[in-house]
Design a protein that fits this description.
Layout (H helix, E strand, L loop, with lengths): L3 H17 L17 E6 L19 H6 L2 E9 L18 H8 L4 H5 L1 H17 L5 E3 L3 H9 L7 E8 L10 H7 L2 E5 L22 H13 L2 E3 L5 H10 L4 E6 L13 H9 L3 E4 L3 H4 L4 H15 L4 E3 L16 H10 L4 H19 L1
Parallel strand pairs: 1-2, 2-4, 3-4, 4-5, 5-6, 6-7, 7-8, 8-9
This protein binds zinc ion (ZN).
Length: 368
């Protein structure tokens, strides 16, 4: 009985994982070109009960699939909370937390059930451990020289450089001083809100959708002192504007769609695309249904082309949201085919290279 409970819970967690992370298209993958590696600004495999180093049948991302997909830079996001009844319009701040349930279903240590900070630190530790066990094929990157070294490796021995980001500041547990704790654990990218408003700022899907709070300004001060990157994915329109004017450091929107091809509150307006581009920031365009209003790679191509038209090819990157509790047209091995489809759709070759990875590599080499 005592052994049966965790096994049964983990089986439920795995079934949820498999059901959420479908792959809609079944076209064969094409091999990754030998050139410079692709980059992706947002994927969530750390949320699930999986071995990152073994090729899995569930979900979208693990090390073997990233390597086959030609990815050399992957931002691994850590989300510490998500509201029950999650939707892109309005979520109550006091809604029960799904990530807590998931920690129990995965039978993690009890400390992780109750503390969102402990949960984020636990996932950072698991990513570091995976990197140590990977035989050099997965490298946790915290500084510019580490990223340079990873990118300089010969293509056949090239590792995946992994960056840690915190999605929604609930892991700060209300206190800006925790920015330094998370930075110490390896986090280099931070956003203030996920699907609910937080002490730091409003969510596009929150109850009040407010702006940047006093705690948010204090957290920005800590981020500037430590040299971190601000992520405005999921920000309310007010937070988006107020954070952009208060923050002078590097900024990106790690995973989003564009209203020009898919008009809903999850996605960026053309004015927001231009505002990020003016700041030298990056827009990570994703592929999932709420981002692109379709289940096929053609919808993802349309969204990327729109972002390039409005923001310029130097400001657009990939923000897959692989394993982010959403279905996807393809998994990480589908990225070379996406590159081919962008070229077929008329995106010039240098722009394809920039969007698929060049912009993200340049951004982080400058920002870390
Ligand atoms: Zn997200």
């Amino acid at each position: 009985m005592a052994l049966g409970v965790p096994l049964a819970l983990r089986a439920i967690g795995s079934a949820v994982d498999a059901r959420l992370h479908r792959v809609f298209e079944s076209r064969p993958a094409v091999p990754a070109p030998p050139g410079l590696p692709y980059a992706d600004l947002h994927a969530d495999p750390l949320l699930w009960d999986r071995d990152l180093l073994a090729e899995g049948r569930r979900g979208h991302v693990d090390l073997p699939r990233l390597l086959r997909g030609g990815v050399g830079l992957q931002v691994f996001s850590v989300v510490a909370s998500a509201p029950l009844g999650i939707n892109i319009h309005r979520n109550r701040s006091a809604a029960p937390d799904l990530v807590t349930l998931l920690q129990v279903a995965q039978w993690r240590a009890p400390a992780v059930w109750f503390s969102r900070k402990a949960r984020a630190l636990d996932r950072a530790r698991r990513l570091s451990q995976a990197a140590r066990d990977s035989g050099g094929r997965l490298v946790l990157v915290r500084a510019k020289d580490e990223l340079e070294a990873a990118l300089a490796a010969a293509p056949q021995a090239r590792p995946v450089a992994a960056l840690l980001s915190l999605e929604g500041a609930s892991a700060l547990e209300g206190s800006p001083e925790n920015v330094a704790v998370l930075h110490e654990a390896g986090f280099r990218v931070l956003s203030f809100s996920h699907f609910t408003d937080t002490e730091f700022g409003g969510s596009a899907h929150g109850q009040d959708k407010g702006g940047l709070t006093a705690a948010g300004r204090a957290a920005l001060g800590e981020m500037a002192r430590l040299g971190m990157v601000l992520d405005l994915a999921h920000a309310s329109p007010r937070l988006f504007d107020e954070a952009l004017s208060a923050w002078k450091g590097p900024v990106l929107v790690s995973h989003t769609g564009v209203r020009g091809t898919c008009d809903n509150p999850r996605n960026l307006t053309d004015a927001q695309l231009r505002a990020v581009a003016r700041r030298g920031g990056l827009i990570g365009v994703g592929f999932w249904p709420h981002a692109v209003c379709g289940r096929d790679s053609a919808s993802a191509v349309r969204a990327i082309l729109h972002a390039v038209r409005v923001a310029g090819a130097d400001s657009v990157a990939l923000g897959s949201d692989f394993d982010g509790a959403v279905g996807q047209p393809f998994d990480a091995t589908g990225l070379p085919r996406l590159a081919a489809e962008l070229a077929l759709a008329g995106l010039p070759a240098p722009a394809v290279v920039a969007v698929m990875g060049g912009n993200a590599r340049r951004f982080f080499l400058r920002s870390l």
